Amino acid sequence: MSPSCVRVSCGDMTVPMEVGKEGLVLGREPGCDVVIDHPEVAARHLVLLFRDGVLFAQGLGAANSVLVNGWVLAGLCPLRCGDVVEVRGAGVTIRPWPAAGGRG
Length: 104
Hints:
The structure is a single chain. The chain is mostly beta strands. It contains no helices and eleven strands. The strands form two sheets. It has a six-stranded antiparallel sheet with strand order 2-1-11-10-7-8, with no helix packed on it. Strand 10 and strand 11 form a beta hairpin.
């Protein structure tokens, strides 16, 4: 089963979040679902989408790339439990996680 939640971490802080049908946008802009106040982060840096039972990551054209398991994210990338998404330069990681009661 694909994860439908993520754990967003920065330093010692970790926040669990569910990725709903609207998705989650991460970036520096105050209207983002996850605001990352860091000069290396674009106004709208990354979006996480949950479509047809699959969690995806997609970069939004930021100058600083997003990494998935150490590889530069290019296009729409499906995510599994155990994957690590990094917002490069900002010290932010995102880890897919199954919903409560789900299996990963």
